[in-house]
Amino acid sequence: MELHLIDLCLICLYLLTVLAFGALSLRKAGADLDSYFLGGRKVPWYLLGISNASSMFDIAGTMWLVSVVFVYGAKGAWLPWLWPTFNQVFLMVYLSQWIRRSGALTGGDWMTTRFKNPLGLEMSRLAVVVFAILGVVGFSAYAFKGLAGFASAFLPPTLEPTTYAAILVGVSLVYASMGGIRSVIFTDVVQFSLLVAISIVMGYFAMTLTTAESIREVTPDGWASLWFGRELDLDWSNLLPQLDDIIALQGYELFFPFFMMMLLKGFLVSVAGPAPNFDMQRILATRNPREAALMSGVVSLALFPRWILVTGITVLGLVFYSTDLRLQDPAFDHELMLPHVIREFVPIGLKGLIIVGFLAAFMSTFDSTINAGTAYLVNDIYKRYLRPNLSSSSYIRFCYLASFLVVGIGVALSYFMESINDIMGWIVSGLWGGYAAPNLLKWHWWRLNGIGYFCGMMGGIVSSFVLPELLPGTSYIQVFPGIFLVSLAATVAGSLLSRPEDFETLGRFYKQVRPWGAWGPVLQYLRLQEPEVAPNRDWPRHIVNVAVGTVWHFMLVVIPIFLVIKEFKSMWICVGVFMLCCFVLKASWFDRLEKEKSEAKEMPEIVPLR
Q: Which CA distances in Å does 306 have to 78, 173, 198, 320, 438?
């Protein structure tokens, strides 16, 4: 696509600006690893929340969401539960506080607060590091694939799309590695402002240039409804017949069974806590457990504009290009709907701003992923096992090399993936299927030890590669239960066949984190020394808050969808539900955080056993 000089200048100006941010952050980032990866735990929670949300506002994910809403309409709002997006509610309600109380630097470092047996501890750290690196490599491939597709539609044909993608990856890598998390966070905030601006612009175009009637004319019955029965009941045969083939190919015709599987998988993954990626890094970077909870709450609120953008692009594509799409090859790639619509619709100047906004979306995801993943290579492998006594500046220099290494592997992997959906499916249902069981048990079962954790993680990782190959033609969500059960069996067997962790370590962990679950023997041990120790009885309140919070989170998705497609009655009903949820969460969650604020001042953090 040919771009005007104004558009090209805006893109170049943006790239130079982010490099300048990295250079300005270089000095502070080089103080030590804590400063490089966590910003010295001095960054305000609302900036961390915006940065976290910006990191989730990526090109590839947005392209996928546009294709989802295009095909499934309002029902597409359920499909992000594949990740699951509502895991932020579990973090907001209680898990972020539990994680932040550790005082750890990485997810691997966190293991020293839960396990002490030397063999089990090292094995558990190794399992987390392997998972983290696989996740970073997978997300690098995912981001690169999406960026190459975006470049093919937007940037001039002077270079190959993969060449453009490599250049932009290089720019992101340079500024992220120079400035550490400070560069990442403050660049993310600027990038988020751009993303909000383009979301408003595209939502405005969609609402002013289309009508409710014009949208209904190009969509099947039920497209604007959230609700579904056992089957999806969307018939595109008289409008865009190729979409019926896509629905069949993706396996969503029997939507209720798929939804129940997605809900089960989402619950198990959410209870397990965040994967060792930028989400956990932002939690560990907060000042205290209360701010960790508030930060996770901001993430859900900050993603509201994304759905205005997604629905705006979808509506413009449907109303203005349905006729062209009807005449196209049935193999048309609907993952590229977003760049096709903007390329044809947006005027000079504004097009450059929107391209900059989507480059910001890519960079905010990519830089956060790389910065978080590098921490595991440097802190949990290089420093712990290879060179434990180097200076801080030596470790920072190795961070640069580690960043280039993980990105190179991810980019190479992207050439073997056929589509964004392939990569996303393996990460969210395959790889995370093996993560769920041992990480769920680490909070709720005292008998879990480091060896059991290692067995569960490695069993899950291996089965995420093996089971899809043994069951060809089966989707990742269908394979998830098998991966989870293999991982669960390996976790329990590994724990029961080896000796438990010592009660001193378990008691210290229980007193500090205050988890609920099967902790009876540990509680009895603590009461021998301190009879006043009581179990955590907050689980009913947490469960209620998670249920209310999930509805609250979902309303933040569907309200902008109904707004842009002009289903105002449904929108106002959802606004009412949202306000009711806010009232309940204010009384049952936020006010309780304020009460716990003073209590937390008297409670020292766990110091990880390094």
A: 15, 25, 9, 21, 33
